[in-house]
Amino acid sequence: MTDFATWIATQKDRTEAALGRLLPRSDEAPATLHAAIRHSMFAGGKRLRPILLLAACEACGGDTEKALPAACAVECIHTYSLIHDDLPCMDDDDFRRGHPTCHKVYGEAIAVLAGDALQPLAFELLLQSGGAELVKELAVAAGSKFLIAGQVLDLEGEERQISFDELRTIHEGKTAALLTCCFRLGGLIADASPQSMEALTTFGYNLGLAFQVIDDILDCTQSSEKLGKTAGKDAASGKSTYVSILSLEKARDEAARLTNEAHAAIAPLGQSASRLREIADHLLARDY
Ligand code: GRG
Known about the structure:
The chain has helices at residues 4-22, 31-41, 48-59, 64-85, 102-106, 108-129, 132-141, 147-157, 164-189, 194-221, 224-227, 233-236, 242-246, 248-266, 274-285, and strands at 95-96, 99-100. By secondary structure, the chain is mainly alpha-helical. It has one domain: Farnesyl Diphosphate Synthase, CATH 1.10.600.10. The longest helix has 28 residues, at 194-221. The radius of gyration is 18 Å and the shape is globular. The site of geranylgeranyl diphosphate has 18 residues, from helix 4, helix 8, helix 9 and helix 10.
């Protein structure tokens, strides 16, 4: 088996190349819109979600070439959510992925429209990897009961102290739903068994929450340069996070506990899930 760092770099490169091919060119009309989309898309994200989708597809014995458009689709949804989240009417952020945010460069109207355009593009791309079943999976995860619900609860919770359970509900929507969806899409493209789909779902949920706990830890322990976005903003604005609710030490314990749950979920998949195990350990240890 290829070593983990090489495998990750290869999947990232494949994703970058596929995005380069599949997204509208920046000189295609309307050029401002397409340049804005490419500005945010190629500003340097980790490409975690595409990599998770490709890993799940590979673990279930699927064709990862076929899965590449779907991998780009989840990155489109993710990038749209970041563009809109950074707008002045939401988090009002100036930096993302180490670069000025979309609205800072192209103005608010074009940033809203860039985010809007990335959503139908995601569904168009999904159909290159499979059928309506894939579309439904992403539509639900990115819809009003998950991704958007998480964002609404997050905005509504800004003005008051929220409980641990409320925080978890926010992140089930904002973070875990799309991460779970990536594993499920990879499994569906590979025509995985119902048992494997169940294992991937529980794995994705726990890993998704662990990812957010770690994100909150990094926000208060790492520099803006390292993270590529404004660090420490949550603490400065008094926003509830896993660290503010649990303490730094207990948040670390929670991230480890969720990662263990994720590992337990894929135990039945045996050797074929080795890459998924490496991903879980890598995410727990990450420092950006
Ligand atoms: C629909 C406007 C709207 C928002 C939905 C996803 C989201 C909710 C908001 C984006 C901001 C945020 C902190 C989301 C939580 C998930 C998360 C930790 C995103 C950052 O993902 P990374 O670290 O980013 O994978 P890169 O830039 O590496 O792709």
